């Protein structure tokens, strides 16, 4: 009996010692980047995340008085149909958006989202005109024929959310 128990333990230990763990390796960054087509323009940093708000003063107060953030003055952008306020976060910004006029795209967003919510993300690019050309070639819809001047005084374009996995993407000239 002791001999058969000894053989069983020895067999178990033998299997345990000889089994090698499975090691999976991720592809190196070189092989991953080889799958990305080269572009004549480059993405830069995340410039801001835009949030549509039904009450701009209340939202400004929340970020300034409750969270202690540095909050800009309200700026009207009639060509975009919005009031904007920027909240500084150190590594990026939040852009608070409120409707300016009845035809504001933010007004229609707030009709569907009564309490507000994330509206878009903004990413900087080093050459917005070249980016537009290449994105059109890749069948990404751009919501305007030409860049408009955005809240930072720089050219911006918006990419259709249906072409960007449900996210409205703003590209801004760096």
Question: Could you walk me through the main structural features you see in this protein, from its secondary elements to its overall organization?
Answer:
Residues 1-6, 8-21 and 28-33 have low confidence and may be disordered. A hairpin with a 5-residue loop joins β7 and β8 (155-159). The protein has helices at 2-18, 29-33, 56-66, 105-112, 128-137; strands spanning 43-52, 70-71, 75-77, 82-88, 93-99, 117-125, 148-149, 155-159, 169-173. It is built from 5 helices and 9 strands; from the N terminus they run ααβαββββαβαβββ. The chain is α+β, with helices and mostly antiparallel strands and 174 residues long. Strands 1, 2, 3, 4, 5, 6, 7, 8 and 9 form a 9-stranded mixed sheet that branches.
Topology record:
Blueprint: H1 2-18, H2 29-33, E1 43-52, H3 56-66, E2 70-71, E3 75-77, E4 82-88, E5 93-99, H4 105-112, E6 117-125, H5 128-137, E7 148-149, E8 155-159, E9 169-173
Parallel strand pairs: 1-5, 6-9
Antiparallel strand pairs: 1-6, 2-4, 3-4, 4-5, 7-8, 8-9
Average pLDDT number: 86
SSE pattern, N- to C-terminal: HHEHEEEEHEHEEE
Estimated share of beta-strand residues: 25-35%
* Main sheet attributes: strand count, strand direction, barrel closure: 9 strands, mixed
Structural class: alpha+beta
Q: How many whole angstroms does the radius of gyration measure?
A: 26 Å
Report the oligomer: single chain
For the secondary structure, the number of strands is: 9
Distance between the termini: 80 Å
Helix content: 25-40%
Unreliable spans: 1-6, 8-21, 28-33
Shape by Cα distribution: globular
User: Total number of helical segments?
Assistant: 5
């Amino acid at each position: 009996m002791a001999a058969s128990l000894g053989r069983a333990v020895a067999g178990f230990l033998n299997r345990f010692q000889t089994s090698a763990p499975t090691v999976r390796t991720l592809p190196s960054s070189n092989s991953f980047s080889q799958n990305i087509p080269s572009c004549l323009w480059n993405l830069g940093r995340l410039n801001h995340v835009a949030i549509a708000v039904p009450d701009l003063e209340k939202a400004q107060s929340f970020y300034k008085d409750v969270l202690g953030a540095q909050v800009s003055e309200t700026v009207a952008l009639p060509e975009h149909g919005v009031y904007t306020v920027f909240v500084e976060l150190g590594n990026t910004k939040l852009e608070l958006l409120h409707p300016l006029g009845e035809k504001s795209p933010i007004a229609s967003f707030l009709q569907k989202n009564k309490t507000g919510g994330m509206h878009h993300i903004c990413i900087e690019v080093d050459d917005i005109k070249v980016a537009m050309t290449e994105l059109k070639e890749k069948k990404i819809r751009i919501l305007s024929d030409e860049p408009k001047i955005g809240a930072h005084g720089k050219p911006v374009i918006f990419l259709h959310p249906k072409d960007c996995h449900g996210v409205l993407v703003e590209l801004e000239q760096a």
